[in-house]
Amino acid sequence: MTDGAHDTTVEVRGYLMVLGALLALTLITVAVSYLRLPEAPAVLVALSIALGKAALVAMFFMHLNREKAMVYWPLGLTAVVFVALIAFVLWTEADHLFGTRFTGAFGKVAP
Amino acid sequence: MEIPYTTEVRPDTGLTNPKLGIWLFLASEVMLFGSLFSSYALLRSGSASWPHQADVLSVPLATLNTIILISSSGTMVMAWAALKSRSLSTFRVYMGLTILGGAGFMVVKAIEYGEKFSHHLYPLTNNFLGLYFTLTGLHAIHVLVGMVVNLYLWGPGAAMWRTEPRRFTNRVEVAGLYWHFVDVVWIFLFPVLYLL
C-alpha cells in the first residue's frame, strides 16, 4: 500500500456480508411469493423485505450510517413527502381497500 | 471557472459540493418514482379486477435481474473501496464487473420485453402493462445512464487518477450513489410488479 492509502479489507468484508444478506433476502421474498398468501399479508411481507433490503443498501453501500446532517435533512423531508403522497392516494381509495362501500346522500348505501 | 469544493469539504454544509448535489438530485428522483408508485397504487386499488402479475410476467427472469443488479451494486462499492486503497487496477476490475452487470440487466430486460411483444402484450393492452412498461422503462433508462457514466469512469475518465486522485475517487463515489439508488428502486419494483 502506498503512503496515505486506506486499508479497506475490513470494509470490503462488510460489503460482502451485506451483499450475501441482500441475495438471501431476494431468494426469501421469491420463496414467500410462491406460498400464495392472501393479499394483505403478502403485501406486508414483500414490502417489509424490500424495505429491509433498501435499508441495507442505503446504510452500508451508500454509507448513510455515517453521513452528515446536511444529507439527513433533505432526505428526511423527502421521506415525509413520499409517505404523504402514497398515504393520500391510498386514503382516497380506502373504501375499496377495506371493503366498505360508497354511501350516497344521508348515508344511504349506493347501489 | 473551477467548481469549488470538489475535494475539500465545504465548511457550512460539511460535504463536498458534488456529494450534496447528488443527494439532492436523488431526493428529486425519489419523488419522480414515488409519483409512479402512487399511480400504481391508485389504479390497482381502484380497479375492479387486476391480473395475477406473476402469470403475466416472468418471475425467474426478474429474480435473475434482481441478483444481477444487487451484485453490481456490491461491485460498485468495492470499486470505490479499491480507489481508497490506491489500487486503480482493482478499481478497473470491479468497475468492469459493475458495467457488465448493468449490461446483463439490460439484456435480460430486452428478452423480457421481446417476450411480451411476441405475445402482443403492449403498454396500451391494459393498465397493469401500461404501468409495467412505464416503471421498468424509466428504470431501464436510469440503468443506461449509469452505465454510460461508469464506462466513462472506467475508461477515459480514469486519466484523472494520475493528476487528481482524490477528485477521481469522489467522482466514483457520486456515480456509486446514483447506481445504488437505481438498485434501491429495482428492489421495490421487483415485488410490486412481479410478486404481488
Q: Your description of this structure?
A:
The complex is a heterodimer of chains A (about 110) and B (about 200). Chain A is mainly alpha-helical and about 110 residues long. Chain A is built from 4 helices and no strands. Chain A has helices spanning about 10-35, 40-60, 70-90, 95. The longest helix of chain A has 25 residues, at about 10-35. Chain A is flat, with a radius of gyration of 22 Å. In chain B, α1 (about 15-45) packs antiparallel against α5, α1 runs parallel beside α7 (about 165-195) and α4 (about 90-120) packs antiparallel against α5. Chain B is elongated, with a radius of gyration of 19 Å. At the A-B interface, α1, α2 and α3 of A face α1, α3 and α7 of B.
Q: What is the helix content of chain B?
A: over 70%
Counted by DSSP, the helix tally of chain B is 7
Taken in chain order, the helices and strands of chain A follow as HHHH
Are there runs of chain A of 5+ residues with pLDDT below 50, and where? none
Mass-distribution shape of chain B: elongated
Largest interchain contact:
A-B, 53 and 49 residues
Globular, elongated, flat, extended or rod-shaped: what is the shape of chain A? flat
- The average pLDDT score of chain A comes to 85
Low-confidence stretches of chain B: none
Estimated structural class of chain B: mainly alpha
Largest sheet of chain A: none
Main sheet makeup of chain B: none
